[in-house]
Amino acid sequence: MEQKPARVRIIDAAHQLMLTIGLARATTKEIARAAGCSEAALYKHFASKEELFVVVLKERLPRLNPLLERLVASPGAWERTVEQNLTEIARQAALFYEQSFPIAASLYADPRLKERHNEAMRELGTGPHMPIRGLDAYLRSEQAAGRVRADADTYAAASLLLGACAQRAFAYEATAGGTPPQPLDEFAASLARTLMRGVGA
């Protein structure tokens, strides 16, 4: 059986380790060992662990930012309603947060490590604020097209939708069943429907 390229093995190993032991404990040495390569080989493909984390988010988790980028580029091209688009955004966002929280949560146990990570995210031009910016931009494009109310606060609407998706990712683990009260598709549709009552033209 043909072995995967080193870059793919490194991303796969990083994803698995970040999920199981957290971002803070997933050292480049551990990742390289799990990928079956040297730490030097890892650094041939990735400048830092933070860059590798960003690649894991982009290539192994649900594609939230690319969806938002497509919608901003051509909001009417899909020939779907704003509510349908928001439903798909909510669905992808809920999946993204569900899978990314276990990876990043360990950062919050070490404030110095978290600040170093935040600084690296700033240098890479990314971070958890980007989906809010993307959704805000999409809603403003729909506002310009007349499908979102002219007086709607698009940033607040984006924050409400994505905040609800993020909350869903961890709010129910302590409950008896350990699962949210609504299935994902039902949650996404009801969230988009409720938001549209406030911002729809």
From TrEMBL:
<feature type="domain" description="HTH tetR-type">
    <location>
        <begin position="4"/>
        <end position="64"/>
    </location>
</feature>
<feature type="DNA-binding region" description="H-T-H motif">
    <location>
        <begin position="27"/>
        <end position="46"/>
    </location>
</feature>
<protein>
    <submittedName>
        <fullName>Transcriptional regulator, TetR family</fullName>
    </submittedName>
</protein>
<dbReference type="InterPro" id="IPR050109">
    <property type="entry name" value="HTH-type_TetR-like_transc_reg"/>
</dbReference>
<keyword id="KW-0238">DNA-binding</keyword>
<dbReference type="GO" id="GO:0000976">
    <property type="term" value="F:transcription cis-regulatory region binding"/>
</dbReference>
<dbReference type="Pfam" id="PF00440">
    <property type="entry name" value="TetR_N"/>
</dbReference>
<dbReference type="GO" id="GO:0003700">
    <property type="term" value="F:DNA-binding transcription factor activity"/>
</dbReference>
<keyword id="KW-0805">Transcription regulation</keyword>
<dbReference type="InterPro" id="IPR001647">
    <property type="entry name" value="HTH_TetR"/>
</dbReference>
<dbReference type="InterPro" id="IPR036271">
    <property type="entry name" value="Tet_transcr_reg_TetR-rel_C_sf"/>
</dbReference>
<keyword id="KW-0804">Transcription</keyword>
<dbReference type="InterPro" id="IPR009057">
    <property type="entry name" value="Homeodomain-like_sf"/>
</dbReference>
